[in-house]
Amino acid sequence: MIALILRRVLAGVAVMWVAATLTFAALRGVRGDPVAAVLGPGALVTPEVRAQIVSEYGFDQPLVVQYLRWLSRLVSGDLGWSYQLGQPVTEVLRGQLGPTAELAIAATITAVLAAVVLALLTAGRGRTTRSLASMAELSAVSVPTFWLGLVALTFFSFRWQLFPATGAGSLSALILPAVVLAVPVAGVLTQVLREGLETALAQPFALSVRMRGIGPVALIGRHALRHACISLATMTGWVLGSLFGGAVLTETVFARPGLGRVLLSAITSRDLPVVTAVVLLVAAAFTVINLLVDLAYLAIDPRLRRRTA
């Protein structure tokens, strides 16, 4: 167990280093004046001020020197200052991490619950039920999130006034964007879980359980579901990690604060410290989530505990 956690932590550190390095290389490789990125587009400065900024930020140093200085600051925990906002990056992100985590977790829980219910209702059924379920899941995955969000706002917020149209900080403001974000995720998870259930039902242990007189509901709920949850846990971990950095469309449609909107704005303005901090947060989230998924494997399948002992 300790060895597993240590391996995951070391792998996470490596992932964060690679992600940060690629971010640095990508933003430094974009053509343009780095001073303009610091001051903002269209800013007029004297040659003296320009020279001071170049010296202060080390833009006159070789790229390798800039990278090593920047990396040393990251290792020491200094995320720097936002070029455009003139604030410490930690202050910029402090109010954005909570709403994004809240939305991502709520959407994931909603999607998992919907996937479990739908998969249990459709697994092992006839061809017609399976075809209808597959069509519904494909439609859920294919619907653009921003379009679904606009439709939800039109009916549930503007016409029926059941939920607020914008903002964050309350349960009523969270329900609609979480459901909208969960719909395509639920489509994918339902397919994965149903395939896992049907694979488990075809295994020899399922025949043995049937021979003991256990009904189909107990067979699926008590035995097949446990086997299928391995693939569900894998996909859930990936989905939750991706939602931390990929909810920008939903946050934009519902005018919610969050990392997605901050990242989009920072990329547009080449605000390297903010972009790097968001990338590192997402990489750290993936690391923690992957560790939790590994621990969930051990809880789901006791055989894995013996292998890691």
Can you describe this structure?
The chain has 14 helices and no strands. With 309 residues, it is mainly α. It has 2 domains: 2-75, no CATH class; 92-308, MetI-like (MetI-like fold). The protein is globular. The N and C termini lie close together (7 Å).
- Which structural class matches the secondary elements? mainly alpha
In N-to-C order, the SSE pattern is HHHHHHHHHHHHHH
Largest sheet: none
CATH class of the largest domain: Mainly Alpha
Number of domains: 2
Helical amount among residues, as a percent range?
A: over 70%
Which of globular, elongated, flat, extended, rod-shaped describes the shape? Answer: globular
CATH structural fold name of the largest domain: MetI-like fold
Round the mean pLDDT to the nearest integer and report it. Answer: 81
Instruction: Give the end-to-end Cα distance, rounded to a whole number of Å.
Output: 7 Å
Estimated radius of gyration: 24 Å
Quote the beta fraction. Answer: under 5%
Number of strands: 0
Low-confidence stretches: none
